[in-house]
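Anyone? Bumping this.
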Amino acid sequence: MDMSQYLEVFIDESKEHLQTCNEQLLELEKNPQDLAIVNEIFRSAHTLKGMSATMGYEDLANLTHKMENVLDGIRNEKINVTTEILDVVFQAVDDLEAMVVSISNGGDGKRNVSEVVNMLMQIEKGESPTASPAKDEAAAYAAIERESGRIKNTYDEFELTVLQQSREQGFESYEVTVQIREDCLLKAVRVFMVFEVLEKAGEVIKTSPPVEKLEEEQFDREFMVTLITRESPEDIQLKVMKVSEVESVDCRMINPDLQESKAEAGRAEAAAETQTASPQTEISSVTKAAAPQTAKKENQSAKLTSSSNKTIRVNIERLDSLMNLFEELVIDRGRLEQISREVNNQELNETVERMSRISGDLQSIILNMRMVPVDTVFNRFPKMVRQLARDLKKNIHLEIIGAETELDRTVIDEIGDPLVHLLRNALDHGIEMPLVRKDKGKSEEGKVTLKAYHSGNYVFIEIEDDGAGMNREKILRKAVEKGIVSEQASEAMTDKQVYNLIFASGFSTADQISDISGRGVGLDVVRNTIESLGGAVSIDSREGKGSIFSIQLPLTLSIISVMLIEIQKEKYAIPLSSIIETAIIRKSDVLNAHSQKVIDFRGRVVPLVFLKEVFDVPEVLEDDEFYSLVIVRKGDKMAGLVVDRFIGQQEIVLKALGSYLHSAFAISGATILGDGQVALIIDCNALIK
Amino acid sequence: MADSAALSTASELKVIIFQLIDKEYALPVSEVRSIEKLQHITRVPKTPGFVKGVLNLRGVVTPIIDLRLRFGLEQQTYSESTRIIIAAAQDIEVGLIVDAANDVLDIQADSIEPQPEVAGSIDEEYIEGVVKIDKRLLILLNLEKVLNPEELNGLPGREG
């Protein structure tokens, strides 16, 4: 059967399910006792398994299956949630993601996952997932087990079936708890002898801790064996006691039916149990939840809103062509309005006005359809921060605010990498090591806040850390060293100007280059990416208190506000985002700084750019004694663009020049005016050097 | 490309015939989107002289090339018969200004001959071949070569 037509849906949905897994795993780490979260992950994993098996991706299905088993164990209270176990599950999800990416890139989705699979299987069997478990870990294991009263054996489906069947055939099952004397020297030998006795009496189906651990003496003094036998418990007890250095033997009958029902329904009891056990299971979390109960409530409300959102999948190309068609409508609307003014017919006027209103509403809906919550970018950060914090051995809490803030899809697609870079930067250079923080009197846990919010026609994204902040002297020394600023200039700079020097290319203040950030190639790339989106990035910092990176982004890239101007008889548009103000000056006010014409503008020397010359506009108008200026900026630099006439401010639809002319000088695009003519949009960044 | 596929099957090829000065040129219809009358063209600064600018083609900003200038022929003021042929090669869509577009013809693919040794004023790389029908000689253009973007960038723009 040809599956290719479903492939796209499969990849999309797989990604969604994996994302859910990631998010919920992070939640689970915060609330290890919340089984609802485990169920959520389990459902996603299960769906994923089914889908990938149907699509014929056996490796994917296989790994998901293994992961599902572990989740099932957690769900049924057989496995306690620990950071180690979550690490393995996270790794499995990582591998799954890599497989899906490989499939979406046309690969076969195959990947060597034997290590993860092994670890998952170990967890499933109730062992510690690490390849070579340390002795103290095993001790801790035993300690946890005893904490809940006594050593407990839990059984999986297969074992339960065995217990049931043997019972039907007249065998009895016992949990034999053996305690060895404290002064025993060769515990493994005693264990071996106990096993020999028991195996003569019946069949051992399970031990706790597992046999391997017992053989390596990785247990305290007590271990438990599940035995199927026809002999009476008293006999077994006596026989085992014959082994020397055994202190006590306890024999309890087990009822497999009870076991099963307990596994399924005994949630209340189990929850209480894990609660007592949870202080032992070290969750050295990236994000420590405040009160688990409130977190739980938040969870539920989040779930409610997500289920009430009904959505359909629409190809982005269709949205684009809808947008294109609508833009044509807007242009025709402009013409119609002009005609109706000329004709001045009452009925025509009313109809046209009505149409304008409706198409206005339509415009906002279509623009909204292209808006995506920033969450689609933010959602991968918690996991990234968790991993990075562990790699860096730092204790970091990431707080995300305003993930529901919406941005145009095109912006969203571009903003991911710069944000990753800034976050890594904050984690690596911003937040100090826990000990350093303690010395400074801060809490050991560093805090990074990622915040998005609307303001006017812009969306702001801020990355704030409460780390070391920036050192003015250190930055200046480096900047002077690298020839980014001169020593004299540096003295006159404000703190903020100094901090923003780190965006200059070839700047890196980290004393050590780490593989996380700090090669000095990043921050200027970040700034360029953001500026190419029509945005801006700035930084503020207080030494010892932390830094804040602020990114300003336009709401949408497809409709922008511009100032229309005329140069001779040609119309051009200048984006409002780069305009500071307009001015009209006398020609006599123009000064000459060497070969450059400049003006004194509010105390600053601003160079003039004669667009007529830059764009080789054919001259048809006569000069008058005034210059019309549009003062534009690029970062901190300014320039005055000399034009001939201001037409006015307008919202325009941004169009590309077509692939044939993609690289025209100082032109960032084009737009279609109400009269059907094309006006070019001036790229101010290219005009300011 | 569509035209080379047609060539190999030795079937009929439908072409649009247009004029530059006294010569007749042909483009396969598969590469032609539409033929427009001359309308307002917005000049784009700092582009080679043969790029006349861009125009609004039903909401799509389309670059316009003056084929006469592209081929190094003398410039001529546009007249009533001047047409813009909207053509597309791969993902590039452009308008070509020609003196007149007057015919659609079916030509036999196997009647296309390589360009004769003595070429006209046009650099021969733009020419796919020539076709002789009755007493007319049609020059079949290679649109991709005409639109070669490398040449667009390589041509001396007026730097300033």
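Late reply, but here is one note on the structure posted above: The longest strand of chain A covers residues 446-455.
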